[in-house]
Amino acid sequence: MKRQFFLILSLFLASNCFSQTRVSGIVKNEKGDPVFNASVILMRSTDSLTVAFAFTDDEGFYEIFTKSEAEKMLLSVYGFNVKKQTKLIDNVSQTVDFVVKEEAILLQEVSIKSEKIWENNDTISYLVSAFRDTTDVVIADVLKKMPGIEVDDDGKIEYKGKPISKFYIENMDMLQGRYNLATQNISATDVATVQVLENHQPVKALSNIDIADDAAINIKLKPGSKGTFALTADVGVGYDENLLWDGKLAGMYFGKRQQYLSTLNANNSGYRLTDNRNITVRPFASIIKPSTPTINERSRTFNNSYGFTFNTLQKMKNDAELSVNALYGGDEIKKSSFSQTTYFIPQSDSINLSEDMNSMEMTHNFEAGINYVLNKEKDYLGINFLAAGSNVNDSSNIMRDYLVRQNQSYQAISTKLDLRWVRRNRNDSGKGIEIESKNSYGTLPYSSGARPGSFPDILNDSVKYALTNQDINLTSLKSYNVLRFLSLFVWKRFTLFPTATFSLERQTLGSTLDLTDNGGNTFTLEEPQYGNDILWLKLQPAIGLTFDYRSLRIKSQLYIPVQLRYIDFIDDRNDNSYNNIKVLSQPSFSFKYKMNHRFDISVNSFIYNSTPSLQTLYSGYILRDYRTLARYDSRLADTWGNSSSLKLTYDNIFKYLVCDASVNYNRYKNEVMYAQNFEGDMLIINAVEKESTGDYLSFSLYAGKGFEWHNLNINAKCSYGYGRTPQLVEDKVATYFNKGWNANVTASLRITERIIFSNKGSWSRMISKLEGQTSNQKPIISFIDQANIDFILPFGISVGSSLEYYHTSGMGRRQDFGLLDCNISYTYKRVRFILDCQNILNTKNFVYSYYSDIYGYYSEYSIRPRSVMLTAKFKVL
């Protein structure tokens, strides 16, 4: 019986092998050298449909198997700098060798396809219809289901765990970084494919000069969605404890030579409308107010918001692109929370601070920009001008054992002008010149008040008083300029690039402290230590050489600069003026090795030097918040450090698999420490000339995998970080050790054609330890899981529900709670009606904790109550 079984099995295996055609051979160039990593493709002769493919190894060898029953087949060879060659062969097992010509070709010729995803050199294309279902409204909904792509709650897109660098619509960059306007407004049914551009170099003239490691996304529309104007509208009304409303108009046009997208929004249902800025400002000081948690924006935001955006792009006759972008918006945000801050003091008891906080934030932002880009193979010219303004008025009340009232206001104006020009030699395409200039200017007048008056022992001879008012005026001018000669010297595979740079930074700071006594009398503190009048100037000319090596598998660059740094610090009020001249070198190195067509390994390392900005150089006291008073009366100090990373990537698009593994290490040395001393629970910061050394080590793994089975898609990322940070607290130097583990998994699954499931889970464990402390702090453990399920019913009806579970433990507390949402949608003709029920369990607070250097933080943040909202989405045009 056993003999019969093995005989039958052998015959079966033999027949299966004999039914396959094996084609193998060696690919060489005209010099007789083997060609590595060439693409060998077997196609049907009738319609050129790909039936099998392979890549040549180090010896130029390839091997392909096929079960095709066609009599004749096409066998083609492609590759980098290899001219395409095709042979017509019989469908029989045989050896077919190639002798190919080395020739510069368009990389776009290399294209291998599969059913849902196909790869074209560094471009990976996703077929949208293969991932989309009827629950997907906008293209952002579909992006979440694609292997390797993740979309955060705030609309940011990551590819293989790293933020994308550019977002194009039909190969045009209209939105200048505000791509969530497109992903949240372009209908999923209007998009044909989503392209991921790996190793993306946006400047064509530098495509073979600089080593690129960024990824970009390009949206390809369906033919029927091009060249037509579309106007969509969302109108919603609902109720929680008050009337809710939401309205949005979005108009868009995407043509061959012109694009347009504008939005008009207003709501009080949880969506902020002033977060699409390209310029952000941070004042020297800020009032204490509730810290925003990581829960989704709609659940945490009590708002009244309105906003308008305008974006357009026009292709010129010379194929240059001219784009104009503008936005204006206002937000009124209410926040409330209970928080507990624990300061860990060396060789002493911890300090605990409990605060009940309520705040109101009123923000108005305006931003407008114009961008001109001429991007050709040998020429590039980019001009970008941006102007922005912000008007902020905030207030916050804090209940401790007494009531603290705070307010702040500032009006920021900023401008930015960036220029970049690249010119390649017509006769020698390797040589050329690059000029780049980045310039910005801003003013930031700031005023804050704290009642009752803070730090009476220091500011008012230990006499309690009613109000502290801090006024700060900051101006900043920055300019960074580069001149680079491209491929000035070439020897075999080595290239030399000389570079000259010049940077300028000029800042002025003026500040005064005003006190109001209990009788209502206001006076300014005139003593020098209570104010600032500073001019800070930093000039950095430098010359450098870039050594570049390129081969079929290796790309490597070493940059060695020599820099002269001049700093002039003039503090007239505190008689603390000096200047400093130093010669520095901050070399950098990058290396990328293509092991084969699947694996890449890269190494990056650089040495850096930094000096404090005015944020940590002022000599006079500044009230940073009602419980922090700071001054930095010390000489100019340097921070030296080295940052290095090692990264391994694996791509197998035909198995829908992408993976990354990386390790990063950073070590630094400071010449100055910042002493943190407590007056009760009030913090005083001073700079002290004392050296310290710290470091940080992290590991991360990322994997994205798609399956044909039920359209299952999984993206997973885990990381570990370890940090060692010296701190000077209460005149004692202590080292704080921080460890953290993180894991995140997102998955989507089409259980049946009518049941769609998705899940997003994250887990983290953080612990902080103080050197010499006998009892370690307990770890903070957090687990969050969000499960979504949608049921697609007949007659255009779908029902969905979402359950979010939160667990937090640490700092002596444990909290478990859940958020339950559900929705019903119905499509009638061109209108989609959605009934949303949010926070059905009526959970009141979001609880979270974390450690940061010398303190631990615990918060109970008030979230939106149970609500019901009916929204209609429809196309007006």
Quick structural gist:
It contains six helices and 51 strands. It is mostly beta strands and 877 residues long.
What low-confidence regions span 5 or more consecutive residues with pLDDT below 50? Answer: 1-18, 104-114
How many separate helices?
A: 6
CA-CA gap between termini:
75 Å
User: What fraction of residues sit in β-strands?
Assistant: over 45%
Structural class assignment: mainly beta
Instruction: Give Rg in angstroms.
Output: 31 Å
Outline the structure in words:
With 877 residues, the chain is mostly beta strands. Among the domains are: 1-109, Immunoglobulins (Immunoglobulin-like, Sandwich), CATH 2.60.40.10; 113-226, Ferric Hydroxamate Uptake Protein, Chain A, domain 1, CATH 2.170.130; 425-637, no CATH class; 656-671 and 691-777, no CATH class. 4% of the residues lie in helices and 62% in strands. It is built from 6 helices and 51 strands. The chain has a 26-stranded antiparallel beta barrel. It has a 5-stranded mixed sheet with strand order 9-10-15-16-14. β37 and β38 (657-670) form a beta hairpin. The longest helix has 17 residues, at 2-18. The radius of gyration is 31 Å and the shape is globular. It starts with a helix and ends with a strand.
Quick tags:
single chain; 877 residues; mainly beta; Ferric Hydroxamate Uptake Protein, Chain A, domain 1; 26-stranded antiparallel beta barrel; 6 helices; disordered N terminus
